[in-house]
Amino acid sequence: MRSLAVALVAAALCAWGQDSTDLKKILERLDNLERENKVLRDEVRGLRIKLEGPTPLPVEEAKPSVEERLDVTERRVEEQAQTKVEATQKFPLRLTGMALFNTYAIMRHNGGADYNTTASLAPSRMNAAVSLKQSIIGIKYDGPLTVLGAKVSGNIFMDFWDGNIEGTTLAPRIRTGAIDFAWSSSSVRFGYEKPIFSPRDPNSLANVGVSPLTSAGNLWRWQPQVRFEQRFQLSPATTFKAQVGIMQTSDDLGSAFGALVDRRRPAPQGRFELAYRNGDRRIEIASGFSTSQTHLRTTGQSIPSRLVSIDWLVRPFRQLELTGIFWSGENIQHMGALRNGLRVLPSGIAIPVHSQGGWAQWSIAATNRLTFNLMAGIHDDRNSDLANGQNARNRQATANVMFRIAPNVVLSFEAEHLRSLYLNQGTRINQRYDLAIAYMF
């Protein structure tokens, strides 16, 4: 019967171009033959049972007893109890993070820092060391129930960063964290994160304690905030996303102004993104803003802090990705920029320092394991707003190569070139070289 069925199938394939009615008849005959074969197999099985009795199960397929199954179940429960992570409220937690080992060398204009973000005016000794303090531990959690129809989730991440100069701050510290209430097309987040208008970061394993291109265009400083997000599906491939919220700022104007300003204040911020995704192709472009006031206690003055931005992500194909941001504003030192936020004139009037800058990155995935990242950034303050000797412009160019030696192990080498211009005192240059290995978990 089987050989006959094969012959009929071959005949059907050869007659593929014939009339559809003939093909239908052939398929019907095949169905009939299959049913007849099934009936014959059942009859043969019944005769065998009558003659020989039921076929015993093979030894390896014999079912364990009830006691054996209970014993195996108890052992598995004990193993899970030893390895699971569960909150007191009985919802699951996921442990994530990165063990990061860095060894680095910093040239002489490092200002005595382990991780300098500007080239110092005066030279010092070359600095070289090893460190694990940029390692990260994170916890992610998802609530099993909804609140007002929203799914609740969140995360918190910590590291062992103790400042640009080792031992100057306490470790560990909180990096970022959030609690999200998400509906189908909207969400509310209570978090400690980057400014709303600046969500992206360059790729680096050398600068993790502070974001890459700090003081060179990347406005990254994590601050408490609450934000609302609304998403609109304009087409199957096109979305529009609006984010608005309030961020709590933290003025850091140095010792000259530390006791003169109200350090914390609310800063309304927003970001509006248009995105297109089609397979590996992806384009995102967004505009953003931030506004707040710095209050001087001694004079009662309020100095405005304003900023507008545009950021982007362009991935024409899987192997190439272009990201970055451009911004322009005044009195923005509280966002992780140069600290030239304002200047007090001899008359006693305080003025904001106008700034512009940004950064861009080219990320090239040569293979599934090998990625090259090229990035550059600039922060440029208006010279007329500054005093003699202040850092007026900071530029940085960085290149790194990341090689995934295992699914969760990455080896990276990075070279950084930093140029700082001091008003009427010239430019200072500093280089940094970093070799890192990261174990992701």
CATH level 1 class label of the largest domain = Mainly Beta
CATH topology of the largest domain: Porin
Mean pLDDT: 86
**Strand order in the sheet with the most strands:** 1-3-4-5-6-7-8-9-10-11-12-15-16-17-18-19
State the total count of DSSP E strands. 19
Q: Write down the oligomeric state.
A: single chain
Largest sheet: 16 strands, antiparallel, barrel
In CATH terms, the superfamily of the largest domain is Porin
CATH architecture of the largest domain: Beta Barrel
Q: How many alpha or pi helices?
A: 3
Order of helices and strands: HHHEEEEEEEEEEEEEEEEEEE
- Overall tally of domains: 2
Poorly predicted regions are 1-13, 55-62
Secondary-structure-derived class: mainly beta
Which percent band covers the strand fraction? over 45%
Q: Summary?
A:
This protein is mostly beta strands and 441 residues long. Helix content is 15%, strand content 48%.
Structural description of this entry:
The chain has three helices and 19 strands. By secondary structure, it is mainly β. It has two domains: 54 residues; 347 residues, Porin (Beta Barrel). Helix 1 runs antiparallel to helix 2. The longest helix is centred in the N-terminal third of the chain and has 33 residues. The radius of gyration is 32 Å and the shape is elongated. 27% of the residues are buried. The N terminus is likely disordered.
